Amino acid sequence: MDEVLRDASPRKGSWDVAALLADASADKPPVELEPAQAPGVFAEAVQLLKGTPSQEEVQRALGDLSAACEAGLQASCSFLHESLSRPKLISGGRFVSPHPRALVERGMFALLIFRCRFDTDGRVRDCKVIEGGPVDGTQRALDELYASLYRPPTLAGHPLSIPYTFHLRFTPPKGELTREEELAWARQRVSQHPKSASAWMTLAQWLAVQSPQDRLYPQAVARAHSLSPGSWWAATEVAWQQVQSGEYAAALITVRPSMRREWANSYVLETAAAAYFGLGQCLEALKVQERAVELMLKAWPQPEQERFQRKAQEYRTACPPEALTTSTPPAE
């Protein structure tokens, strides 16, 4: 029997607001704001969303909120994270593997990736195949996607027409790939689909886990960041590599957008702190690292928590005593 993916709702782990915003603005000229402009633009967007805006106005508000977030206004970043709701499957979404049943029963895995658009009526439209399988099976999955009905994504309760990328992974009954097989599959995917952001991101993440010394790792991370600039993970990994190479200014430029959007992410903050320290900005490094320590999850392994704390102590020891008495905020 073919494996059925019963629920095609976006999974919680895949709801990356920053990546979604980057995807949504890919075909539009970016809105750029100076930090001083951000509060006013943010206030206007929030006020607009309190009324009954048109879809054009909702889209404009989304762009303005994203620009204010990029300008370093944490209130705007928080509003986006709290007010953007994910789509939810209402009916349909029953997919079968694109491969013949005989291959599925023998353990054939499959992954289909479609870049589509959610419309405000909850329908999926304008799909493009990013990674496909056999033609007939891929078309069958695409037809099912078009026939499915979702509660559309919303911004402050207002339906959005927004791009979204679907990842449909099919596993045979009782089938599970080992880590080594996952890595081998990721290598195969980038070979077959060299323009797939998902393929490069998956390869980079598996290499990070299994083989960070692999010569392909820097290239995989760079490609993932290039194809998915909204991903905080890829940006942070590229910036960390730049720190290790002594390219501190470049690292800060790379990680700064993620630092603004993901201001509560300890790994982003750790990378930014290392860049500040490399630039000789000791106090800024200490403040950012201390915030990273403060925001660490209690569930983190003890060695990881201790590593963050040791780094904060290292910065504290390196800072001149007089610097520790100042209150200069971290540079933006």
UniProtKB/TrEMBL annotation:
Name of the molecule in the record: TonB C-terminal domain-containing protein
Annotated segments matching region Disordered: 311-332
Alphabetical list of Gene3D superfamilies matching this protein: Tetratricopeptide repeat domain
InterPro entries: TPR-like_helical_dom_sf (IPR011990)
Organism listed in the record: Corallococcus terminator
SUPFAM superfamilies to which the protein is assigned, alphabetical: TolA/TonB C-terminal domain, TPR-like
